[in-house]
Amino acid sequence: MNKRAEEEVMGTLMANVIFVILVALFFGGMLYYENMQKNGAAIWADFYVKEIVKVVDMANPGDEITLNVQRAVEIAVKKDVAYGDIFNFDNTRNEICVKLSPSRHTCYKYFNDVDVVGAGVVLGVPEDILHFKIAEKQNKAEVKS
Amino acid sequence: MNLRAQAGVQSTVFLLFFSMMVIALAIVGGFYVFFGGGFDFRTSEASLLNYKVAECIMNKNIDFDKIGDDFFEICGLNKDVVNENNEIRICKNSPDCIQEENPIFSFNTANIVQCGIIGKSGNFPKCASGVIEKNRDKYTILTVSKQNARKLTG
Q: Which residue of chain B has the CA closest to A49?
């Protein structure tokens, strides 16, 4: 094969390789997006984190809060997320994170200068609930539910 | 490859990318139509902050001439979070708090002027306005929320 023909074959080959990589990236991206959105996990995580932040922003030290989180737990279970990882309260950053799919957290900050303590998911009473207490700010380390 | 063949390959590539775009738009659009566009919490957050500040002014004796950053501690607000995501402006006996040159308390108010143009765009920070009366003085409280949820992978 002469040099020109060789260059042409290499060029075609490279173009095809790039093309296949782009197609694979596209379908990979679409599958990832579809997986993220399955069961509305992203939307529900967004909803739950903001509702919990709303409650914490309105709360006063000493309050005990119980929220129905049945839908969140159902989605998390379908996505193999451990109960202890669903709701995450970071008192140092005043931030709450909700994880309803294995690779994604949705986080939101609360302006109320309080700590969230004793957070935990209680299953089947008769529905799944999230229970936590509001305490005076003490710059505590991260508390997991 | 001759020019005609090259044009054929290029048009196939274009068609494929176009169909990929259509597929992507259909998938994203389908999810959007089914689940909705998310939950905008900023208006609620601005209202909550407004309520907290109003409650604080009503229940605590705050000397706005001296208060400075103690305001956050007295009102039970986290200064770092407010600095990052919110804005507060308080005016006393002012007919227009947005344009007021001497508010009694002002914190991080770069976007507060946009409170006058609410509804122009969904991307603007969201505002809440409240008026309370204490000791015959009228306090106007403007609060802004510009916080969006943080999505973390991993």
A: B149
Spatial neighbors of B3 by CB under 8 A, at least 6 apart, are none
CA–CA gap between residue B61 and residue B31 (Å, rounded): 51
User: Are the C-beta atoms of A104 and A36 separated by less than 8 Å?
Assistant: yes
Residue B10, CB half-sphere, CA atoms under 13 Å: how many? 7
* pTM greater than 0.90: no
**Chain segment A10-64, per-residue pLDDT in tens:** 888 888 888 889 889 988 988 888 777 777 888 899 999 999 999 999 999 999 9
Q: Is the CB of residue B54 less than 8 Å from the CB of residue B141? A: yes
Distance (Å, whole) CA A109 – CA B61? 28
**What's the count of helices (H) and strands (E) in chain B, helices before strands?**
4, 5
Interface contact A108, partner B, CB < 8 A: yes
Rounded CA-CA distance A64/A109 in Å is 19
Alpha helix positions (H), A38-82: 41-58, 70-78
Interatomic CA distance for residues B113 and B75, integer angstroms: 24
Which structure tokens are listed for B107?
């914190």
> B23 vs A58: CB contact, 8 Å cut-off?
no
Q: How far is A90 from chain B (nearest CA, A)?
A: 13
Closest partner CB to A33 (pick from B1, B27, B82)? B27
Question: ipTM of this model?
Answer: 0.79
d(CA B131, CA B140) in angstroms, rounded, equals: 4
